[in-house]
Automatic annotation (TrEMBL):
<dbReference type="InterPro" id="IPR023214">
    <property type="entry name" value="HAD_sf"/>
</dbReference>
<comment type="function">
    <text>Specifically catalyzes the dephosphorylation of 2-phosphoglycolate. Is involved in the dissimilation of the intracellular 2-phosphoglycolate formed during the DNA repair of 3'-phosphoglycolate ends, a major class of DNA lesions induced by oxidative stress.</text>
</comment>
<dbReference type="Pfam" id="PF00702">
    <property type="entry name" value="Hydrolase"/>
</dbReference>
<dbReference type="GO" id="GO:0005829">
    <property type="term" value="C:cytosol"/>
</dbReference>
<dbReference type="InterPro" id="IPR050155">
    <property type="entry name" value="HAD-like_hydrolase_sf"/>
</dbReference>
<keyword id="KW-0479">Metal-binding</keyword>
<comment type="similarity">
    <text>Belongs to the HAD-like hydrolase superfamily. CbbY/CbbZ/Gph/YieH family.</text>
</comment>
<keyword id="KW-0119">Carbohydrate metabolism</keyword>
<dbReference type="GO" id="GO:0006281">
    <property type="term" value="P:DNA repair"/>
</dbReference>
<dbReference type="GO" id="GO:0005975">
    <property type="term" value="P:carbohydrate metabolic process"/>
</dbReference>
<dbReference type="InterPro" id="IPR006439">
    <property type="entry name" value="HAD-SF_hydro_IA"/>
</dbReference>
<feature type="binding site">
    <location>
        <position position="8"/>
    </location>
    <ligand>
        <name>Mg(2+)</name>
    </ligand>
</feature>
<keyword id="KW-0460">Magnesium</keyword>
<dbReference type="GO" id="GO:0046295">
    <property type="term" value="P:glycolate biosynthetic process"/>
</dbReference>
<feature type="binding site">
    <location>
        <position position="166"/>
    </location>
    <ligand>
        <name>Mg(2+)</name>
    </ligand>
</feature>
<keyword id="KW-0378">Hydrolase</keyword>
<dbReference type="GO" id="GO:0008967">
    <property type="term" value="F:phosphoglycolate phosphatase activity"/>
</dbReference>
Length: 216
């Protein structure tokens, strides 16, 4: 059995809110709209770029329009790794799992291009056997098919896999695919989103939970 850990990206591996926030504020400025507080942006993250822009425009009383999304994708794509960093302890956890023989994958609702840019820019892309982005397959989280397609691309099996994420979309996708789920308590989602899943308070707390999860 080759164990495989499937990680969400935003709010789980990386603290990407600063660059998402900066890009959204530039879009607001372009439209003559007021900028956002960080907490407002964090509450809008989790369903991919299109929904993020939809929510941002709706919060300013505006209807969604495609040029806004296109502008955001260009701007964010060029600025995804300015302030974004891995959460403390993440690189060490990934290195430990690698040394223990785990396979690893990323399953994110972020479009795959900026996801790859970020993972490479932060020097952690070499840990992953596959990156399943929000636009990699016909569906995305919470649909479990997004997770199952990512697992297939990583050469893993659902029975050997655990999902780690910070949003109810991650919990729903993991459970829908029949996987144990660990909730990233350091991320963007309120703890209520764990919905009974074990919570890791810090990245280092993942290790015992991951090792135990596949023994259960
Ligand atoms: O891009 C988003 O809104 C969320 O991305 P995530 O699935 O990596 O948390
Ligand atoms: Mg997330």
């Amino acid at each position: 059995m080759t164990r495989i850990a499937v990680f969400d990206l935003d709010g789980t591996l990386v603290d990407s809110a600063p660059d998402l926030h900066a890009s959204l504020d530039r879009l607001m400025a372009l439209r003559g709209l007021p900028d956002f507080a960080r907490a407002e942006v964090i509450a809008m993250i989790g369903d991919g770029a299109k929904v993020l822009v939809e929510r941002a425009l709706a919060a300013r009383g505006q209807a969604f329009d495609q040029p806004a999304l296109d502008w955001f994708l260009d701007d964010y794509g060029a600025n995804a790794a300015v302030e974004t960093a891995t959460f403390d302890g993440i690189p060490a956890v990934l290195a430990t799992l690698k040394a223990e023989g785990w396979r690893m994958a990323v399953c994110t609702n972020k479009p795959v291009a900026p996801a790859r840019t970020l993972l490479a820019g932060l020097g952690i892309d070499q840990f992953f056997d596959a990156i399943g982005g929000g636009d990699s397959y016909p569906v995305r989280k919470p649909d479990p098919a997004h997770l199952l397609a990512t697992l297939r691309d990583a050469g893993g099996e659902a029975r050997d896999a655990i999902m780690i994420g910070d949003h109810h979309n991650d919990v729903a996708a993991g459970r829908g695919a029949g996987l144990p789920v660990i909730f990233a308590g350091w991320g963007y989602g309120p703890l209520s989103m764990a919905a009974g899943a074990p919570v890791a308070a810090t990245p280092a707390d993942l290790l015992p939970l991951l090792r135990a999860g596949l023994l259960a």
